[in-house]
Write a structure and sequence with these properties.
single chain, mainly beta, Porin, about 400 residues
């Protein structure tokens, strides 16, 4: 994407970048955090089920959805996902990539994993105050993660991720001004419970059909581009989900999945200082916007929007074959109209042959001309060295 930037001031540079970033924040982060790309569903399988996956974390992308799920897996896997970013803008150099690897190491008593997320925001032309050409720069963001997962009980897996985050909105430095670059670190904690027998009054024994997942992600210090006072929080996110095997047979299997997710960020808007009687202090004094730090924000964030900020994602997955041969998927995503108003359906399919696999997903937005509409994701994977633990 080619865009002109007039003038040398960093604020002018960020005007153009803000168009893209505000769109991304509104679509994925509810406008409260930095680096919203960390909330993008990274794999076509989960995306085909409405962007739900915390309780169905049994592939390479589990390092994102729930590292605790990898404790149950006994083989190696490499996967890569590609997706054009905001396809309604028709810009070929806006794209998202996700690469993951996991390996169960018996001597370590668990599974190690790693992943790379990369979001390319495009190329920009920089122009001087007299419209002279000052060259071009590329804007991009990436995150590199490493994790470890193990079973603490036969039916309970836990996992952690450590992550390095780098955001380069304007990596060049001009006229002694600071670069629009920031970096920080974060970590995730997750758990997956897969009971082998669960008796529920009135329903009987569910056997091994139910799984319950939990993930608290992007815990870390705020991101600072120019001034520490203007640092933005990471998109700390709480996710709780359930997966249930509706039909379980030799050749036909259907699983239902649902996720409840909420951002745990508390931002206070700018406001004028007021007297005890509610009248503005004279002369007028403006209190700047600010955010709560961790761990306070884990609690205080519920005071803004409460449960209304919880997003709901769910879907169905059908597999045919023994071993699994091909899959069909459907999903739906819902967000409160006052806090983002994202609503869309997703569709997907997948095939497996020997050690290879391919997943595809398509997003259909409810409203017309939505930036997310017609989003396609493609995931290629290779798995070898063992079999899934049921």
């Amino acid at each position: 994407m080619r865009s002109k930037v007039f003038g040398n001031k960093k604020s002018q540079i960020f005007i153009i970048l803000a168009v893209l970033l505000i769109s991304a924040v509104q679509l994925y982060g509810q406008g409260e955090s930095a680096v919203p790309f960390l909330l993008i569903a990274p794999n076509a399988r989960a995306d085909g089920m409405g962007e739900a996956g915390v309780a169905l974390s049994d592939d390479g992308a589990a390092s994102y959805w729930n590292p605790g799920g990898l404790a149950f897996e006994k083989y190696q896997e490499v996967s890569i996902t590609h997706s054009n970013w905001l396809p309604q803008f028709h810009l070929s150099d806006l794209f998202y990539e996700f690469l993951s690897y996991r390996n169960n190491i018996e001597d370590w008593g668990g599974t190690v994993s790693g992943s790379i997320i990369y979001l390319n925001l495009g190329e920009f032309n920089r122009r001087g105050e007299n419209n002279e050409d000052l060259g071009t720069f590329k804007a991009y963001e990436f995150a590199v993660s490493g994790g470890y997962s193990t079973k603490v009980l036969s039916e309970l897996g836990v996992g952690v991720n450590l992550r390095f985050i780098y955001s380069a909105l304007d990596p060049q430095k001009s006229q002694n001004q600071a670069r629009g670059v920031a970096s920080t670190v974060s970590f995730d904690i997750g758990a997956l419970w897969k009971p082998q027998s669960l008796v529920i009054p009135g329903l009987g024994d569910l056997e091994d059909r139910l799984a319950v997942g939990f993930n608290l992600s992007n815990l870390g210090p705020k991101l600072t581009y120019i001034q520490q006072a203007q640092a933005d929080p990471l998109p700390t996110n709480l996710r709780l989900g359930f997966a249930f095997k509706i039909i379980k047979s030799e050749f036909n299997n259907i699983t239902g999945i649902i996720d409840f997710s909420r951002m745990l960020v508390r931002r206070y808007p700018a406001d004028t200082l007021k007297n005890p009687d509610g009248t503005p202090v004279q002369p007028l004094q403006v209190k700047e916007s600010y955010v709560d730090n961790l761990p306070k924000s884990l609690i205080s964030s519920w005071g803004s929007g409460g449960l209304k900020k919880v997003t709901i994602a769910g879907g169905l997955e059908y597999w045919y074959g023994k071993p699994k041969l091909f899959a069909l998927r459907w999903g739906y995503f819902y967000e409160d109209p006052h806090y983002g108003n994202r609503k869309f359906m997703t569709f997907g399919a997948g095939i497996r042959y020997d050690i290879y696999g391919f997943d595809f997903s398509y997003l259909s937005a409810i409203e017309e001309n939505h930036p997310l509409s017609e989003t396609l994701r493609f995931t290629l994977l290779m798995s070898w060295g063992g079999e899934e633990e049921e």
